[in-house]
Amino acid sequence: MSDSSLLSLAIRNEEFGDVAVLTLNDPNKGANVLSQSVLVDFEKHLDDLEDRDGIVGLVIRSTKPGNFIAGADLKEFVADIDLPAEEVVKVAQRGQQLFGRLAKVPFVTIAAIDGVCLGGGAELAIWCDRRIMMDNAQTSFAFPEVKLGLFPGWGGTARTPRIVGLANAVELVTSGEGIDAKAAQAMGLAQDVVQVSPHRPDAEKDETSHEEPLLEAALRMVCHEAEHKDYLKDRDCWAAPISSEEGGISDTELGFLGATASAYIQQQTKGNYPAPLAALEVMLGAAGVDVEQACQMEAEGFTEVFGSPVNRALLNVFFLRDANKKQAGTDAEPAKINSAAVVGAGIMGQGIAAASVKRGLPTALGDISAEAVGRGVQGVLTEVSYNKQIKGPDVAKALEYTPLINGTLSDGEIANADIVIEAIYENQEAKQELYARLEPHLSESTLLCTNTSTIPVTSLAESLERPENFCGLHFFNPVRRMPLVEVIRGEKTSDQTIATAVAYSKKLGKSPVVVSDGPGFLVNRVLLPYMNEALLLLEEGASIKAVDRAAKSFGMPMGPIELYDTVGLDVAIHAGGVMHAAFPDRIEPSSILPAMVEAGRKGKKNGQGFFDYPKSKKGRPVPSDEANAIIAKHVTASKEFKSKELTERLMLPMLLEATRVLEDGVAHSVADVDLALIFGIGFPPFRGGLFFWADHVGAAKILEQLGEYQELGKRYEPTDFLKKTAEGDGKFYPH
Ligand code: NAD
């Protein structure tokens, strides 16, 4: 038999009979993935085992550390994306029939899960008669399909509710979130859980070793099932309807579950992500039929989501992220980073230090006074010891991380680190003074990085002895939630510095995008025209509510006016000034911002901005008469806006600026721009990215839309990049 490189089959002659052990480990990949060729081999193995006499059980397991099966091969999925619905049904049915054999073969089937078990892998496991899971940090069972705008199509929605109950299955499938071994056992998904052996935790397992506790537990289970045949009763039960006249979940319960789940999903997705609701509908609809019919309903429902615009957009985001993980920024070899230091223990410094500590890096944190350092260290420890489950600090975590953070006032201790990140306040002289003091203490190879949001990296490097070791490392606020880091190349930054900064950012679990130096770098440069336009719309007579609503209906996490309050109006004036100085012909700062700040309204940080943020409303924005009165003084027209016009007025300047960023070479690809905006400002993933959205609209149509706004001046003037795209195939993404 021609084994795919992923699968290998061994037959073990145990006292109680022959046990087939199918082992997954693709030596050429970091993860086990179910490609078509793997599925073909899997089918051959099942044929072979069914033809043999004496097999009492099949154990499916992986010897790839931390990975059972990462899912189906998404590249193959994309190749099928334009298939007609009747072909998509067949693709789903083929998977269902293949995996469905695991619940029909004449011996017990067991998935022995160690590591991630996702998507198609979770479906393979759910079709087995039994699941045993390793109780360790890596092991997680999930149906993440909804995160790609899909739902499980190889029997996941049909089989899971029959094993764990409809409510649990609905939560698993519609949330896309993973559960660990203990949670899986508690809901009846795993029938046994194996504790981590203290020795050889990450070692590749020997296929025949009797020391492998998960395999041993699986073999014990085969022995038990071969004797007692409990799995045969479960096969009957799990093939039957969930609700029927004879029992199971009642119509009332079904109605209640449907109403609460659908309300929750609507609130979470705001109508922008259709897959969870579609999955819910399929699962509720199939409660009264047997598993075969449930599979048929699943396959038909799957055609509604597969290839939909949201599915395509989310797949794009997946591939952007995947490509980003593989990019190193340059061909240079990164230096090893075994320790970090952060200077400036404010909002950003604390976030960066906490991210380093969480990844196990010894981290020094400095500031100008013992008090500021103490506050910073406290902030870092509060963040790293936070435990989601108990919604508070976890003493064990605090004890684990405390030795890694070193609050210090000593330049020598800061300079000992492999990478030093400056996050002091936004002042060029202060930053340069600090570098002049620190640099003599730094080794020849130490990286010095700045978290500046507006000051050109090249000018900050002017007086450095080793400007080649210097670059921008621009984290976004709050660091713990925002995955983007802009790695900014100054004129003299070396390739190795870029490679090391990229590697460090990845070590922190971030998605770094390498950009060239320039005003606002990438993200703030593209964001500012959109934000500024919001103020100009207010001047023309649009209401705050209408402007913010237009942006939110487009999918932005908050409207631009509320975003001003979040960023801080004083900070926004500064950033706007930088952009105006650089691009005076198209960035015209509104007079509203200075008037607000003059009236003491700085945004969320002092509870008053475009909105008020009263404590009684737990910091939520409420309209402010005072702010509205200030705005009224700056309104110069009383135009009535349709929501389509508001959306175009906001999004088109953003898109044009993004094309200029590419023309200027600040960003290197449409993919980088899209990833940076999704991960840096929360551009809606269901749009696939700014350029992906523009591709959906079409470059020619965008030119047409811009035509309507030409009297507004330079900021709506089509760029050469846009015009060329419109003259070509109309798409920004290369095909
Ligand atoms: P912050 O005011 O919260 O903290 C700055 C800290 O630096 C303070 O604790 C201050 O005491 C300390 N400091 C000032 N001079 C110092 C010196 N010479 N040596 C040591 N410590 C010194 O500021 P922040 O919001 O954390 O911003 C820090 C940097 O990050 C700025 O360059 C800012 O532009 C940039 N940034 C901020 C954000 C944001 O949203 N806050 C986002 C991205 C980047």
From TrEMBL:
**Which UniProt keywords are given for this protein, alphabetically ordered?**
Fatty acid metabolism, Lipid degradation, Lipid metabolism, Lyase, Multifunctional enzyme, NAD, Oxidoreductase
Q: What is the protein named?
A: enoyl-CoA hydratase
Has the keyword Cytoplasm been applied to this entry?
A: no
Q: Which residues form the 3-hydroxyacyl-CoA dehydrogenase C-terminal domain?
A: 520-613, 647-726
| GO MF term (any one) | long-chain (3S)-3-hydroxyacyl-CoA dehydrogenase (NAD+) activity
Family note = In the N-terminal section; belongs to the enoyl-CoA hydratase/isomerase family. In the central section; belongs to the 3-hydroxyacyl-CoA dehydrogenase family.
EC top class named in words: lyase
Q: Which residues fall in a coiled-coil region?
A: none
Which Enzyme Commission number(s) are listed?
4.2.1.17
Pathway, according to UniProt? Lipid metabolism; fatty acid beta-oxidation
Determine the domain of life of the protein's source: Bacteria
What Pfam families would the database entry show? 3HCDH, 3HCDH_N, ECH_1
Alphabetical GO biological process terms:
fatty acid beta-oxidation
- Give the catalytic activity: a (3S)-3-hydroxyacyl-CoA + NAD(+) = a 3-oxoacyl-CoA + NADH + H(+)
Domain 3-hydroxyacyl-CoA dehydrogenase NAD binding: from-to ranges: 340-517
Asked if the Swiss-Prot or TrEMBL record annotates the protein with the keyword Signal, the reply is no
